[in-house]
User: Fold this.
Amino acid sequence: MKDSLLRLLNLQRIDTELDKLKQVQTDYPEAISDLRGKLESAKQAVDDKKQHAADLEKTRRQLEGELETIQADLKKHQDRLYEVKTNREYDALQIEIEVLRNRADENETIILEGIEQHDELKTMLEEEERAYKALEADYQGQIQDLQNRLDLVDGEASGWREERSVAEELVDRPVLSNYDRIRRVVKDGVAVVPIGKGSCGGCFRQLPPQLRVEVKRQDRIIRCENCGRILVWREEA
Assistant:
C-alpha cells in the first residue's frame, strides 16, 4: 500500500501534465478557428464593398442608357415643334418636352451622385484591401504558429500517455480505482496530494495530529475531510 500511495504522486504529476496538454489541444484549435473566423469576416466586408461598387457601376450604366433614350426622345419632340399646326399641339408638345428635360436632369443628377459615391467607395476599398492583406499576413502567421505548437503538443501528449501506462501498472488496482474516481470529481483533477507543514497539499487546511499519524502509516487510503483528496505522507513532510 505504501508504495502504491507514493506512486500515486508520480501518476498525479503525469496526469496534471496531460490535463494541461489536453487543455491546449482544446484552446489552440478554438484560437485557430477564431482567427479564421475574424479573417473571413474581414474578407467578407471587403467583398461586400466590391459588390457594392459593382452594383453602383451597373446602375450608372443603366442610367446612362436611360439618359440616352430620354435625350433621343427629347430631340424628336423638339424637332416636332417645327411641324405642329396648332397652338394646342404646340403647348402639349412643350409639356412633354419639359417632362423629358426633368427626367434627363434627374438621371444626370443621380449619375453624378453615383459617380461620386463610386469614387469614394473605390478609395475606401483600396485602403481596406491594403489593411486586409496586412491582417491576413498577421493572422495566417498566428494560425501557422498555433498549428506548429499544436503539432508539438500532440507528440508530447503521446509521450506522456506512454509514461502513464507504465506508471499506472505500478499502482495496486484498488488504489488506482479510487484515484481515478476522485480525479473525476475534484477541482483540476488533482486527486492525491502530499501533506506539507501539517496541512493538506490540496486545500491547505491544517490536519489534526491524529490524522497525520494515520496518514504517515500509509497502510490505507485516507482522504482529506475538507476537500476529499487522497493524502500521502512524504518523508520531507
The two ends are 18 Å apart (CA to CA). The mean pLDDT is 93. Strands lie at 192-196, 199-200, 230-232. The CA atoms of residues 6 and 206 lie 21 Å apart.
